[in-house]
Structure formats: C-alpha cells, structure tokens
Amino acid sequence: MTDHLQKEVKRETGEGTDLWRVILAPTIWAVHFLVCYVAAAIYCEKAGRMADLLPVRLIVGTATFIALAGLAAVFISLWKVRGLSSVNDDYNYAGNTPEERHRFLSHVALMLCVLSGVAILYAAFPALVLEVCR
Amino acid sequence: MKNEMAHRHGPDQDDPWIRAAQEARLSKAWETPGGWRYWSSVNNSEVGIWYIVTAFGFMLFAGVLGLLIRTQLAVPDNEFLSAETYNQVFTLHGTAMMFLFAVPIFEAVAILILPALLGTRDLPFPRLSAFGYWCFLIGGVFVCGSIFFNAAPSGGWFMYPPLTTKQGGIGADIWLLGLSFIEVASIAAAVELIVGVLKCRPPGMHINLTPLYGWYVLIVGGMILFAFPPLIAGDFLFEMERAFDWPFFDPERGGDPLLWQHLFWIFGHPEVYIIFLPSIALLAMIVPTFAGRPIAGYSWIVLSALGTGFLSFGLWVHHMFATGLPSISLGFFSAASEAVAIPTGIQIFVFIATLMLGKVVRSVPMLFALGALAIFVAGGLTGVMVAVAPFDFQAHDSYFIVAHLHYTLFGGMLFPLVAGIYYYYPLMTGYMMSRRLGVWAFWLMFAGFNICFLPMHLTGMLGMPRRVFTYPGDLGWNTLNLVSTIGAFVFAAGFLVFVFDALRPKSHAEKASRNPWKAGTVEWALELPPGAWGARTIPHIESRYPAWDDHSFMRRYDEGRFYLPDAEEGRREALVTSVLDAQPVQCMRVAGPTWITLATALCLAGVFIFATYHWWTATFISGLLTLCSIVYWLWTGTGEHPEKDEKAIGMGMTAPLYISGPRATGWWAMFITMTGDLTAFLGLIFGYFFFWTVHDQFPPPDIDGPGWTWPLAAGLLLCGSWVLTYGARLWNARGDMLLFRMALLAAVLLALAGIGALVMGPLAHRMDPTAHAYPAIVWALVLWTGAHAAAGVIMQLYCLAASFAGRLTPKYDTDIWNVALYWHFMAFTAFATTLVIGGFPLVS
Amino acid sequence: MHDTKPEITISFGPCLPIAAMGLLLSGCVGRQSALAPAGHDAEQISNLFWVMTAGVSIIWALVLGTALAATLGLFKNPTRLTPNILIVGGGVVFPTVILGILLIFGLRLLPNWQSEPDRLQIHVHGEQWWWRVAYRAPDQIEPVISANEIHLPAGQAVEFVLTSADVIHSFWIPSIGGKLDMIPGRTTRLLLEATRPGVYRGVCAEYCGTSHAKMAFAVVVHEPKEFNAWLEDRTSDPNIGTDDPGRKIFLSSGCAACHRIRGLTEIGSVGPDLSHIGSRRTIGAGIAENTPKNLARWITDPAQMKPAVQMPAYRALPPEDIAAIARFLSNLN
Q1: Is ipTM over 0.90?
Q2: Do A118 and A32 touch, CB atoms closer than 8 A?
Q3: Which chain B residues have a beta carbon less than 8 Å from that of C177?
C-alpha cells in the first residue's frame, strides 16, 4: 500500500501537470485585471476626473506585456508536457492512465492560456481608447 | 494494481448466498430510520430529496409573488397592490428566487445525485449536508414568512444603502441575518461537494474521466468559496451599521454607499454563474445520452467551465456601470464581460457538435434541453449587448434588463433543471414521468415564458424603469405589459403541470426499467428503485461511459465484484481516493443518522433570529448552545479510533481506516472552509482600503488610530500562538506528550493575551466606532480577528482535552492537524489585521 | 464630449424598423423612449441598439438552426473534423473577433470629456421623490432655482451635476441619453446634448423607496434662442397677483415653511421651489398634469397620489381655500 502510495504521490507531483498549473493562466488574467483596475481606480480617484490617463495607460501597457510574457512561458512549458506522450492523437483524452491525465490537463491548460490571452488583450483595449479619467 | 489483485483473494463473489448475505448487511447498515426518526437521516438520498422539495417549495412561493407583480403591472395605474406591498413583493421575489431557490437547488441536486455519479454511497460529510439543509429550511421559512406579518424586506434583493440603512422596521435585518444564515448552508455544501469530487471519486476515475457534472460541481464549489464570503463580510458591516450605528455606508460620517455595491456584486455576479453552471452540467449529462455517443469535446467543456468560473469574477462592476465610475474602469469590466461570452459559447457549440455526431432520440429531457438552448442563447446575446457600457447606460435598470436576466436564468437554469429532473426522476424514484404531460408542460412553459419576457426587451427600450409599482397609461407600454402578464400565467400553468406530474400518486405511473434512457454513465448502474445503500459496489472505473464501453460492467457491478461489496462490521463505508488519479487511500467510515445536526441548526437559528429582534441575551445564550452542540458533535462524531488499522476493500486491495493530514477529507474540509473565511476577511481589508481610496486623507487626521504598539504586540502574541500550535503538532507526532501539552497550553495563553492586546489598541485610543467610518472599520477588523482567535483558542483547548482523554494520540492526530491548519490561516489574519490597522497609518 | 467622441455614421432611420413592427409604432412618438431619440447620445445608442439587435438575431437564428438541424439529423455523415471546426470556429474564433470589434466600438462611445468653463451647468439634486434643479449659465452669478422640470437648449452640450440628499436615485431621460446615478456623498457628472425641440419625460431609474415609481419630471427642449429667453425670464420674480386671495391662504396655512416663491417668501427650502409653478407642465414630480383641479387634489391629500410622500395632507382646510391656493399657484409664471 505505502509503496504504491509513494508512486502515486510521485506521479501526482512529478513531471507533468496538476490542477494548480491548470489554473495558472486564468490566475495571471485575474492578477492583470486587478492591477489594471486598481491602478486606474486609485489614480482617477486621487488625481480627479479631469486628469490625463497617461500614467494609467503606461501601467496597463506594462502589466499587459508582463502578463502576456508570463502566459507565453506557461504555454511553452505546457506544450512540452503535452508533447511528452503521444498515446493517440484524438482530442478525447479518455484513457485511464496518469499519462493521459497529464495530456488532458495540459490540453485544458493550453486552451486556458489562449482564452486568458484574449481576455488580457481585451482588458488592455480601454487603455488604448480612453484619454481622460471621466 | 492488476498485479496486486492477482495474489489476493476476497470473498467468493460467484456464490449467490454470499452475495445475498452481503446485500443484507449493506441494507442493514444503510437502512433509513423509520417513523419520526426518519428526520434524523443524514444520507444524501434523503437529505437531497428534502432539499429539492424545499427549494421547489420556495420557488413556488416566489413564483406566486412573481404573478402578483405581473397582475399589478397588467394595466397602468393599477391599485391591486399598494406601493409598500408591491415593494415587499418584488424584493422577496428576487431574494427568494436567488437565495432560496437558484443557489440551494444546485446544492440539493448535487447532494442527491453526485454520489451516484461517482459510483459511491454517500458524500464524505453527510451530517454537514443535513446541518446545511436544516439551516436552509429554517432560514428560508423565516425570510419568507415575514411577508405575512407585513415585515418583509422592501429594499430590493440588492439592498442598496442608504435606503436600507435608513429604513425602520426589521425587514432589512431579516434579509441580512436570515440570508447570512442560509449562506452558512451554501458554504457547508460547497465544502462537502468540493471534497466529494476531489477525494471521493471511485478508484480508477482519473480526473480526466470524471463525469462532467463533477467538474462543474468542483468549479462551482470553488466559486462559492470566493463569491459568498464577500457578501458575508458585507452583511457583517451592514448589520453593524443597522444595529449599532457604525457608519460604513453613511457618507456624512466618512462611509460610502458604493462600498456595499462592490461587496454585493463581487458576490452577485459570480452568483449568476454559480446558478448557471450546475444546470448546464445537467445538460452535459443529458445531451450525450440522447445523442447516443460520448460528448464531443470533453476537454473543451472543462476548459470553458473553468474559464467561465474565473472570468465571472471580473464582471461585477457591470452592475454599476451607471454609478459614475471613471470610463476606464467601466472599460475593463466591459472587456471582461465580453470575454466571458467566449467560454460560454464554447459549451453551447460542444453540445451542438455532440448532437450533430449522434443520432438523437426524442424525449422530454431533450425537449427541455433544446428549449433551454433557445432561451439561453438569446439571454446570452442580450448579455453581450448590455456588456457594451454605453448601451447599458440606457438599458440599465430598465425592463430590458428584467428581460435579459430572466432569459439567462430561465434558459441557463430553470429549463435545464427541469430537463434534469425529468432525466433523473427514474433514478431517484423508480418511476418515469409522463411523456404526454411533459410535452404539454414544455410547450406551455416555453410559450408562456417567451410571451411574458420577450416583449419586456421593448418595454425597457421604450423607457420603462424596473421596480416601479405602477406606470402611467400614456407612454405606450400598456399592450406590452398586458401581454407579459398573460404570458406569466401561461408559464405558471405549464409549471403546475410539471409539478403535478412529479408529485402525483404513482399508482398509474410507468415503472422505470433499469437504465431507462440507455445512458453510458455509472449512475445508471443503480437498480431501480435504488436500495438505501445506493451503489451495490463501488466500481472500478476505466472509461467515461462504462455502461457503453464495457459490456461486462453491469454484471460485475451486480455481482459486487468491485470495491466494498459488503459491510462486514455493519458500518457505513466509502472510499477516499487521491485527487488526480483516484487511487484508494482510505476506507472511510461515514456517519449515520443523528439529531445533533438538527439541534445545532436550531441553536444557530436562535443566534440569527434573536439578533434580528435585538434580543441580545437570547442571542448570546443561543450562541453558547451552538458552541456546545458543535463541540458535542465533534467529540462524539469525529476522530473515531477504528478497531483495526486496515481492511480489505475488494479487488484484492486493502486500505487504512484512519488517516490524517492532507490525505484526509477532514483536512481538506478545513482548508476549503478557511479559504472561504479568508476571502471574507479580504473583503473587510478591501473595505479599509476602499475608504482610503475615496477619502482625501485616510485615516482622517483628526481621529486617533489604534497606534502601533498594541497592534504590534497583538500580532506577535497571536503569531507566537500559531508557532506553538504548529510545534505542538510536531511534538505530538514525535510522541513527546509533555511538550505537546505544554506547548498547547502556552499557545492558549498567548492567544488570549493576543486578543487582549488587539482590543486594547482601539480601546486605549478611545476610538468610537459610531463617530466615523475609520474607527468603525478598525473595530470591525479587530472584532473579526478577535473572534477568530477566540475560536482558535477553543480548538486548542479541544485538542488539549482530547489529549488527556486519550482521543488525540501520536497515531490518531487528525484534530491537531486540522487545528494547526486553522492556525496557519489565523496567523495570516492576525498578521494582516495588525499590519493594516497598526502599520498603514504610519505610511499613509 | 463631442470634442473627442467620434460620430457613429451608421444611420438607420431608427423609426423604420419600428414601423415594421406594427403595433410598436407608439415607440416613435414616446416621450420616454430610448428608441425615439431626441439627443445626441440617445441617437448613437439607439443606432447601436438596432445594429446589435440585427446582429444578435442573425446569430441566434444561426445557432438555433444548427442545433435544430443537428437534433433532426440533417447533417449527413459529419466527418470527425466537423465538431472541431464548429467548436473552434463558432465557439472561439468568431466570437473573439466579433466581441473584440464590439468592445472597441463600445469603448469609443464612453464618456471621455473634460470640463469647459463656458458650458451651461444644471445641478439636479434628487430627493425622495422629487428633483431640485438649479441652472447656472457660464456668465450667471446667481443660479436659477426650479424643481421637477428641466429645460434644455437644442444643439448645446449641457453638463448635469448630480447629487442626492437621501438615498441613491438615478437620473434618466431616455429620449436624450443614458442614465447616471445620484449617490449621497458623491457628485456625478453627465454631459447631454438634446437635438430635437419638444417635450420629453425623465424618471428616476434606481429604486429609491416606496414611491420610486412616482419620481419623474418633464423635459422641455427649446431652440437655443427660446431657451435663453426662458432662462432670462426665470431670473426675475414671477407675477404674483397681490390681491389674489390664494396668496394670503398660502401664507397663512404655513405652505411657506417648506416652499419658496421668489419675491414672496424665501424661508422654505424643504419642499420644491414653487416660483414659476404655473408654467410647469406637471405637478408632484411628473406624475399629474398641472391643472388647478389636480393641484387641489394634491394639496388635499398628496399621499393619495404619491404614497409615503413627506408633504402632509391639508384635508383640514376648507375645499374653497384649497381651490384658491391652487388657482394662485396656477397663475405663478
């Protein structure tokens, strides 16, 4: 029992993907979103509604760059995991092995990277368009 | 694992006599208590049914309120309801539908069917489910009953201050306290369901084989943990303002009404998805069955559910588009509101793709599923429209929004739910619902719904605001409103047909054959009607649709050839498995019938209900009783020492009967509960910094703060207590009992001193919480942290007592594991509180 | 806002689609309809609404059509690629592009303007359940006080300064533009430009208590010249008939404790200013036509017309006195 438990622990935490890695990309989105919103909210509250948005736009730009770079890093590492095994090429991931589970989770995580990337880009649009706090 | 199986032998499952004896023992262990003791049941199949029936009861009540609203608005200048009554009616309609139906029905359905979907016999904490149910029932009756005494809340289901802080009467208090009480039930259910999905899947069910319903439950459970607590924090601040005049939302004393809107909608928007996702999850089970093939894009569904879960937390300000926030803030939330449509759309296209690839069997559940699709897609698309902030400036608070939200809720929740009830009805009762009545119910509901709500889009665009008890007759709204009213009654007729079909005596009803829909998932392996034990055996899962993929599955299942086919010791048992690959790690003894859940719920109800009337002595006594019953519950119901270390669980495997730490369900429950608790705390911290943002100077220069010395002392003392508690766990594990007990004792003393120091900060500086929002928020943080530290002290004392009683030993150390975990969170709370109240004024 | 905000050039002739809808024709003549725009913002939003409604209807029909066809088995032998094309194309690529465009389009319509000293400012202060109104033209020293009716010049951007006395209200003139909340302790600002002279109706859009439904106001849009004349007229005292019997009863019954009439009594400030009430279109904050009969009804028992209103009933006064007050008020202009 303990023997297979140890193996199991190794499988669950070893190379590959786990649930935490899956939610990394949307977490990056969440942090980016909060940074942008909080920066803008505080700036506009403190500087007044007539203030020029330039500082906020710079912050949003930087945050977006960092977030996208982070996403890219996550994406690359996941891509490697996904490529590790190629039991079959369908997109069902319905096999009952831990390797298949890794492939499944990395596939979900990869697609979440794409979705988070879109959401991050969307969140950067307002900073492109707007010029004053009002 | 196959190797392991080969060289061990369990009982001979080929022998029908042995199997019959096993079944008899299982039956006895899982027997539902008879007579009045029936109400002491805790098994998911009883509690689940109560939960569903109660939630539908509240739904019918709220539905009648909805009809009253429509009757009042049928013609202009109507005097059917007075303004005040109307306001109570619409407030209670929204409140009951949201808090007493939409969210609880998710918990109800999940509690009922999740064990079956996971091939197991019960959820890990049956008593917690029962406790949650009783809280829900009592709280719901209390909130709904108020309207019969003309004391119902009338401030809208969103309770915006200052309208609601200024209102006299107890309506708002009933809302705040009654619903806080019900939120306890929601969080209890979230804990139960998350642990259920993560730790109680059948062996072999890797996370990529989990039924999609399980994924949705997991995600929604997680969302509840982050969405409900901010509202609890908000409720706490709100009730402090109403009961003790602490001015959090009063602009004249430094408060701000918008703080409530933030806290409410940080809860309120994810809540929409908390309601929507579990119902879509039912469709994810139904669609493959009737398409006769696996879902086309399992990982897409998981992705989109996860994506929706996250993005839904970036939408809350779209309920505040018209509050005059800076355009850039609106822009961010507009962006997230658009983005969330992408994962939502993916789910729908996966369903369509599945239908396309399969050969669809026509049935009532499919009819409702398609109806849901038609309605929900419309609601989702109008959602995209209102996410465009400038358009929302017109649509907001108009009947356009009423139409939009009902489209999303009916299409995203009610129709899928009814589909799910038709689908799972045979599984729960052993009878089929009538196809003929089902078709009637569908068309009446579908037509009625659209007749009622489609015109409202236009009514709103023609300028009719929401929440009006009447309207003038010369604005072009009369026909539209009359049509809506007619539609509402048509819908109600259809819904009654459905209710009648579900409740009618079953003497003429068609008995369900086994697996009547020819589904592939494991829950349909159950005999119909199911025995009290639920699953005959806990199956070993190797695919997502075992009934389709493995032709020997049903036979082996019936012959008890998988796990736990027996109850040798006459105990209720379930398997705990590892999170990702579902390897068995424990054979868990599950609790049986008890009255303690009801008793605890009654005591806790006393706390909330007496507080509503400001009967503080009675509140205090109820609190004390609640504490006693919880301690009794834990002392008698948990941490049992099993009679042996391991037992054979079938398929040639053995599993330990006792485990502690991160592998055990209890540890996960504590972890999850405290995550929710931490979120509530962060809600309070958010309040502090929100005030800093909106004030030119915060803390205000003319008001004394708590200084830095007392907070520093408090922080150090409480963190010391944490270190000692953690040390105690290690010393206990090493068997050093003296050191263990000394450390715990010292931890108790440090914590008590810490609480004292914490309170001394604002006390010594004479901070008056009624004078200004600044002292009020400082006191709120102190109160929160102090109360948590006090709970921590009780836990430490509990461990100490358990150690002396011989219950807590180096081998059986669950209690100290969980208490140490609590103190990890406690230490963070203490650290953050003291840093904010003591440190922030130094730097600002 | 028009300095930075781009014009939407799609012009739909917003009434055409409505006309097609037959019975909904009333929308075009509605005084409170967002689809019968008489303001710059309302026009843009109305156009946006029609464009989005058209798009949304098409998408809905396509999705549901596909779902229905799939259910009925109309797709013969779909290949294994079909679902992936459907999910990736319909679920990911198409919405990402469409939503991105829509988002940018919407962002460009957000308020994005700065204060200008030469704008007409109208301060509107919401109270349960009526509106205090004060006009301040750029060159004006003393604001013109009024209540429950708003006059606007056509073709000029007006800055509304919105505040609230008690609870949250929301200021909404659907024909002219979007709404904005009035929040105690905060000041919100809204820039609106009426384009078409006429009489419209505004309401409170945020639930604000018992008589939320009874909190409205008339909006009168004038040609700029007319408007200036109107404002000029309002800077002077109303014609108060000195020998009007109603005047004496008004003063002796204590009405002046709450209501101000310019040039007659300046003490009261709790209730609406009545200086030029005779010229207003409605009474009771937009809930009844301004006729002596309605005024008398209102004075006799205001709560019957507006539940929970703060003004006490004057049932104790003889009906002829009430009629006299009503006549007196009707003549104030």
Answers
A1: yes
A2: no
A3: 393-394
